[in-house]
Amino acid sequence: MAKFQVQFDSNKCKGCELCHAFCPKGIIVMSEQINNRGYNPASISRQEDCIGCQSCALVCPDGAIAIYKEDESQ
Ligand code: SF4
Ligand code: SF4
Question: What is the count of structural domains for the chain?
Fold first, then answer.
């Protein structure tokens, strides 16, 4: 089964929680850390449960999320 990596550019995040609201797997959480902009950035809680739907990346107004499919041939 395909695995996906969700990467956040934490310092682009403004903590709007849209990605958290739109993730069908409920695996995006807000960090307790504070980023450069003074917000609590989004992060992933259970990477292995990501289905690669891209909803989070599409809904993010700041382009702070990228999804990568892991290469299973290695
Ligand atoms: S790609 Fe889909 S399942 Fe994975 S974290 Fe983003 S919204 Fe959730
Ligand atoms: S949608 Fe983008 S800006 Fe909003 S919390 Fe998620 S990563 Fe941060």
Answer: 1
